[in-house]
Amino acid sequence: MKPFIYDYNLDALREWVKENGEAAFRADQIFDWIYVKRVSSFEEMTNLSKSLREKLDGQFAFVTLKEITKFQSKDGTVKFLFGLHDEHAIETVIMKHNYGNSVCVTTQVGCRIGCTFCASTLGGLKRNLTAGEIVAQVVEAQKMLDKDGERVSSIVIMGSGEPFENYEATMTFLRIMIHEKGLNIGQRHITVSTSGIVPNIYKFADEDTQINLAISIHAPNDKLRSKLMPVNRRYPFDDVIASLDYYFEKTGRRLTFEYALIGGVNDQAEHAQELADVLKTRMAHVNLIPVNHVPERKYVRTSRSDIFNFQRILTENGINATIRREQGHDIAAACGQLRAQHMQKGQEKAAR
């Protein structure tokens, strides 16, 4: 299979055109066609010679994301289920905010982290996406927004999968997204979320970027976190916190802690106080997420009174805490739900 043109950042394209006897500026033209003009074929790159277009067509492919399903929520959220070249499927979400349009991208087909409240891990990990397959999700979202004269203003890497287990592809994707000659997304408008892959938190801290880091914490201690997130047995709570301290020391950037509130499991006053005790000496923001109901899981949503009480305790301890505004609640919004439904239908069809 030919490599995807979206897998190549501008430096890699410049190296490729040089190796193929072309002038260096041709790479910039190609990059412009891909990300500014957003063409879907090499034949459309009309300021390139026919021989160069043929060479590109012979050596590269565009990522094909086949739209299997698209749902639009009452709040404007759009969720896609895209089919890949190998019959796997991934989800991508466009979220409308008063400050612009955000795209949530997926980095893996499935997930092996095993969080017990998450639909993404149902069926396990199938494979990593290439950088180009991650890039293509944003390009497709931007093409949709082009029809209304709008643009992607921010990106969250919070879809299915663990981006720090697909680290190199994720970093290539990020470098393509922030390049001023491409989509030119501001670094501070991009957030990457990890479940706590400690070695790559240290590595990311040393990348010298302004990209935001969010940590899926979901519990205030080692025992409960291991119950909810099996990855905690590999990278214990204290090791995760130490790596985040290193990140702050290196970057000076505030960390976001994502905390999914699960009724009767991790949402009580004692959990809030314990979390506050861990974070109150650190520059942290806590994003409280009322857990989405997943039919395959037995967890229930936290009551409104417990949500606000949890937030109050954090705030009283000097910790900035917000409750995530729910979007796409009416269109299977939880990560992995749409793909899980698609997989189930496929299994039922195969069984007939």
TrEMBL record:
Chain sites annotated for binding [4Fe-4S] cluster: 111, 115, 118
Cofactor binding remark: Binds 1 [4Fe-4S] cluster. The cluster is coordinated with 3 cysteines and an exchangeable S-adenosyl-L-methionine.
Keywords carried by this UniProt record: 4Fe-4S, Cytoplasm, Disulfide bond, Iron, Iron-sulfur, Metal-binding, Methyltransferase, rRNA processing, S-adenosyl-L-methionine, Transferase, tRNA processing
SUPFAM superfamilies assigned to the protein according to its UniProt record, in alphabetical order: Radical SAM enzymes
Locations listed in the record: Cytoplasm
GO BP terms, alphabetized: rRNA base methylation; tRNA methylation
EC supergroup of this enzyme: transferase
EC number: 2.1.1.192
A Pfam family it matches: Radical_SAM
Organism superkingdom: Bacteria
CC per GO annotation: cytoplasm
GO molecular function terms listed in the Swiss-Prot or TrEMBL record: 4 iron, 4 sulfur cluster binding; metal ion binding; rRNA (adenine(2503)-C2-)-methyltransferase activity; rRNA binding; tRNA (adenine(37)-C2)-methyltransferase activity; tRNA binding
Reactions listed under catalytic activity: adenosine(2503) in 23S rRNA + 2 reduced [2Fe-2S]-[ferredoxin] + 2 S-adenosyl-L-methionine = 2-methyladenosine(2503) in 23S rRNA + 5'-deoxyadenosine + L-methionine + 2 oxidized [2Fe-2S]-[ferredoxin] + S-adenosyl-L-homocysteine; adenosine(37) in tRNA + 2 reduced [2Fe-2S]-[ferredoxin] + 2 S-adenosyl-L-methionine = 2-methyladenosine(37) in tRNA + 5'-deoxyadenosine + L-methionine + 2 oxidized [2Fe-2S]-[ferredoxin] + S-adenosyl-L-homocysteine
Further facts: Reaction proceeds by a ping-pong mechanism involving intermediate methylation of a conserved cysteine residue.
NCBIfam families cross-referenced by the UniProt entry: rRNA_mod_RlmN
Function: Specifically methylates position 2 of adenine 2503 in 23S rRNA and position 2 of adenine 37 in tRNAs.
Stated family: Belongs to the radical SAM superfamily. RlmN family.
Protein name (database record): Probable dual-specificity RNA methyltransferase RlmN
